[in-house]
Amino acid sequence: MAHAEQHLRGFLRDLLNEGVEAGQVRGDVSPDELAGYCLHALAGAGGLTSKAAAKRLVTVTIAGLRPQD
């Protein structure tokens, strides 16, 4: 399980790095930290009781990735 989580984190980190380079993801936090943030935030979705709550969690997580004005 740890290997799969490391692989997922690396994949997400690389995607976020591409987003930083394209100006679509905030650059003031390292992509590795952002990957950890996303994985931990979205891990909470398993305990949610509705699709609406899961959508709100995803919306909040994505908002945290946006570049700061």
TrEMBL record:
Signal peptide: none
One Pfam family hit: TetR_C_43
Residue ranges of domain Transcriptional regulator SbtR-like C-terminal in the record: 2-67
Top-level lineage group: Bacteria
Gene3D superfamilies: Tetracycline Repressor, domain 2
InterPro entries (UniProt xref): Tet_transcr_reg_TetR-rel_C_sf, TetR_SbtR-like_C
Full protein name: Transcriptional regulator SbtR-like C-terminal domain-containing protein
Organism listed in the record: Streptomyces chiangmaiensis
Lineage: Bacteria, Bacillati, Actinomycetota, Actinomycetes, Kitasatosporales
